[in-house]
Amino acid sequence: MAIKKIAEDVYALQSFDWDRRTFDSILETPKGTTYNSFLIKDEKNILIDSTEPSMAGELLEDLESLDVQIDYIISQHAEQDHSGAIPALLREYPNAKILGTKACKELLENLLGIPADKIQSIEDGQTLSAGHHQLNFIVTPWVHWPDTMVTYLLPEAILFSCDFFASHFATTKTISRLEDIQEEAKRYYAHIMMPFSQMVQGNLEKLRDLEIKMIAPSHGPIIEKPEIILGLYEGWSSQRANKVVIAYISMHGSTELMVKHIARMLMDLDVEIRVLNLANTNTGELIMELVDSKAMIIASPTVLTRPHPRIASILYLVNMLKPPIKYVALIGSYGWGTLIEKETRNLLGTINVEFLEPVLIKGKPGKEDFEKLDELAHEIKEKIGR
Ligand SMILES: Cc1cc2nc3c(=O)[nH]c(=O)nc-3n(C[C@H](O)[C@H](O)[C@H](O)COP(=O)(O)O)c2cc1C
């Protein structure tokens, strides 16, 4: 664990998980992660969030080295990577009071067995005076559970943002350049925030009038130039992109010929595209590309009447993560009979997209098939330009 002073009497206590390579068994974390807890030393000592249960001992050691008793624990989100060490903290500081939203209180009781009388639920806009410091609680639901809130600290103007604006990125640097944060922040947004892009917009609106000098999320680095991450979130959540992602599988090359043809045509039409062969692409790479795409071309051969299983699992994920795509086109080769269109529509059943006329061809594509792909490319160009 590392103690970093981020302002007078304000400390970041970061647990470094350098080797972690996946989160929630789905989100890749190539740069590891950190679990960040924050201490405000004042007349009342306040701890904001905690750490993974397995790292509770390190957090307790750091608090001991800072020689503090804890009066309040602010639980901004009940998930175990932030609140899992609270039971251990309560054993060490039995008089500490826990504050969280009403939804957070219920989850802390259910997930961590914390007694109800230890937790006070707080309302949006409620404040807490620590003495010299004042904490303002802003309820920000669905970034990323229904219980989430952020805390604005005065007079320092630090926003403790929990998962909002976080990234899985184990680094000892504080961030003041866009290049340092962009990739991991985008990966995090794509997997955690994208399904709730409208809630993200609403929560950004709630923060709009605050003067924020520093953002201190509960994973990854402290961000010294808040405008860089606020700008990225504004762009990602406002769905202004117009790229086309082509995700494909081809077992014997026919579907791949179709992909190469339509990709070439779209490039000739000056459409920004990204082509991903799912046989050798990480799922995360595709999900990140979808953050700023307006259309997706799914290219799959028929396997046992349905989309190739790798395509099907991607469709399931796309349906869940709700990228901002507005148009879906299905292309692919089959041998004798196919139900691929029906299955694709089923798998994308809950996202609000327009399905374009599919181009499904028997065997190897010929001249007429390529002409149909040209028509589809023109239609896509026309649609995304609107
Ligand atoms: C395991 C397997 C299952 C298949 N099942 C079907 C099927 O149910 N219906 C069909 O029309 N073609 C089926 N095919 C044939 C392929 O869809 C066909 O060969 C197609 O052209 C392959 O496209 P590709 O060259 O892009 O891999 C199957 C092929 C394989 C290898």
CATH homologous superfamily heading of the largest domain: Ribonuclease Z/Hydroxyacylglutathione hydrolase-like
Tell me how many strands there are: 22
Across the major sheet, the strand order is 1-2-5-6-7-8-9
Euclidean distance between termini CA atoms:
51 Å
Q: Report the average pLDDT across residues.
A: 96
CATH third-level topology of the largest domain: Metallo-beta-lactamase, Chain A
| Helicity range | 25-40%
Organism: Methanothermobacter tenebrarum
Protein name: FprA family A-type flavoprotein
Domain Flavodoxin-like: 244-381
GO molecular function: electron transfer activity; FMN binding; metal ion binding; oxidoreductase activity
Structural description of this entry:
This protein has 386 residues and is an alpha/beta fold. The protein folds into two domains: 1-235, Ribonuclease Z/Hydroxyacylglutathione hydrolase-like (Metallo-beta-lactamase, Chain A, 4-Layer Sandwich); 244-379, Rossmann fold (3-Layer(aba) Sandwich). Helix content is 35%, strand content 26%. The chain is built from twelve helices and 22 strands. The chain has helices spanning 56-65, 80-83, 86-92, 102-112, 178-193, 197-207, 226-237, 254-268, 283-291, 309-321, 340-347, 367-384; strands at residues 2-7, 10-17, 22-23, 27-28, 33-40, 46-48, 72-74, 97-101, 119-122, 127-129, 134-139, 149-154, 158-162, 214-217, 243-248, 273-277, 293-299, 302-303, 306-307, 327-334, 354-355, 359-362. A seven-stranded mixed sheet has the order 1-2-5-6-7-8-9. Helix 5 crosses helix 9 (283-291). The termini are far apart. The model has no long low-confidence stretch (mean pLDDT 96). Flavin mononucleotide binds at residues 250-256, 301-305, 333-338, 363.
